[in-house]
Amino acid sequence: MSSVSTLTDDPWTGGRARDPDAKREAVLAAAASAFVQDGYGATSIDDIAARLGVSKPTVYYYAGGKQALLGACFTLALDAYSEAVEESAVTGIDGRERLHQVVQKYVEITTTVFGRCLHRVPDVELTPDVRDRLRAVKRKVDARIRDLLREGVRDGSLRTADVRMSTFAISGAMNSIAQWYAPNGKLTPQEIAERLWDSFSEGVRPR
Predict the structure, then answer these.
(1) What is the average pLDDT score of the chain?
(2) S-S: 32 plus which of 113, 123, 148, 194, CB 3.0-4.6 Å?
(3) Which of 41, 65, 89 is the last residue of a domain?
(4) CB atoms < 10 A from the CB of 180, how many?
């Protein structure tokens, strides 16, 4: 999850002024925020530089052009999603508990600026290699949710008559968060994840 966090300290001044990784992450966070707020097409490198209070060449130096920025923002989110559904990252006594963990992690990533960027910028703007990675990670997440639903049905902790439809419902609900989530809203990402889980977990609760 740390790979999609945003910076709270100014990397251009103070103790982090010489940290190129911090500066690159700041540039990417500013780019993702601009893409989410204004749209990819309407955002220029000048806009991103203005958000940071740096020069246009500085943005190019640390992260490249606009399409490279978008690809890097997507990659940060994709790495986090992929990691979140790895077998070693999901623990629990049964399928229900393990699925709950996946939902929590997925929602928290989706509410980051990089997660929102991934869900709100059309994939037609991506280079072919990033688009292929996006589709591969989507398939990986989808497969993990299906596997956990099946696991829950086998161990008696979940109930569903149609694993495929339940997967679509869960994924659709989680992805939609990127369209309305506001960082300054009343609910934290953790609270959103729990309310979402409460909403659809009743539908897969054994009777």
Answers:
(1) 90
(2) 113
(3) 65
(4) 9
The residue that leads in pLDDT, 6 or 94, is 94
Token pair listed for 95: 């399928």
CATH number, residue 89: 1.10.357.10
Cα–Cα distance measured from residue 103 to residue 97, given in angstroms and rounded to the nearest whole number: 10
pLDDT of residue 19: 79
Contact 189, 182 (CB under 8 A): no
Residue 87 DSSP symbol = G
pLDDT, residue 65, reads 94
Q: Which domain holds residue 51?
A: 2-65
Q: Among 8-12, 33-37, 129-133, which is the least confidently predicted range?
A: 8-12
Contact 107, 193 (CB under 8 A): yes
Alpha helices in the chain (DSSP H): 20-38, 45-52, 56-63, 66-84, 95-110, 113-120, 128-155, 163-180, 189-201
Structure tokens at 144: 């993990």
Q: What is the pLDDT of residues 11-62, one digit of tens each?
A: 766 555 567 888 999 999 999 999 999 999 999 999 999 999 999 999 999 9
Give the rounded distance of the alpha carbon of 1 from its chain centre: 9
Q: How many residues does the chain have?
A: 207
* 98 and 154 part of one domain: yes
> Is 60 exceeded by the pLDDT of residue 8?
no
